[in-house]
Amino acid sequence: MLGRDVEGRYRYWNDVQLIHRALPEIDFSEIDTSVSLLDHRLAAPIVITGMTGGFPDAAKINDNLARAATEVGVAMGVGSERAAVLKGQYPESYSVVAQHAVPLKFANIGAPQIIPQGPGEPVVGADEVRAAMALIHADVLAIHLNFLQEMVQPEGDRRARGCLERIGALASEFPVLVKETGAGISRSVAEDLRDRKVRAFDVSGTGGTSFAAVEHYRAVDQGAEREARVGKTFWDWGIPSPVSVLELVPLGLPVVASGGIRNGLDVARAIALGATAAGIAGGVLRAASTGYEETRRELELLVYELKVAMFLTGSGTLEELRQAPYVLTGESRQWLHR
Description:
41% helix
């Protein structure tokens, strides 16, 4: 969907205003952006969220992403591995990631695929999860929740009953992070997942790429009038990313703040709200579609911008940044006072 307007219509991260500290009383060279996420040390609190795989050109993109993530010291996920583990399609588009020493790798499967969607439909079970993790030498399994997206796909999966228990069963065997795909996670859902041994969350709230919009365009291209309309109607459906972060942080598990993270200042805003790390997608995907140097440069710029924000708030470490004062404004403030 590169080149098409698929962004949310409101920039929720602009609602988070960090307070400028005119006398930082630290040296820029002293700033430490390192963080521990799920027992893995990262040089910066950034996760390249799972985006791509399952088609020929994805191999080069994932190679650029993995190589740059290794050099900069950040985490990385891949797109849904369903096609590779269930149908054996384009496994090399994922396995290229295994060639790089990325400090933290996330395998990726979709929640709709862990339950039966119809008679004879294959289901992702423990064996398929092992295959998905082995394919990229993953450290953690990401299970993505994409039911809004499925509702806009003409061929989308409509069954969700039983997903929670299946996630719990997989979380008893594998380290699991549950991530949304653009509509956010509420506290009540997160509590249910925490009670089933899920170890972390990626909120992926509204305000970034709208996957309802992505599927809207696909439905238009396929002539699926009903689904095209649903995608347009639900373009901005979901919980804003900053709101989801603020609701999940008190649960005590690591939270990755994604959904609309566009620069290092947004990363800093997410950390100030209590997130462990921030997830990025669109900007780095565009860079990775061009080349490795562009990808590494984009990641390095994100880290530099984060350090500038830390300097201007007098925060020498990420823990200090989490204590930095901020003002919450706009629609995000209204959400929290609902």
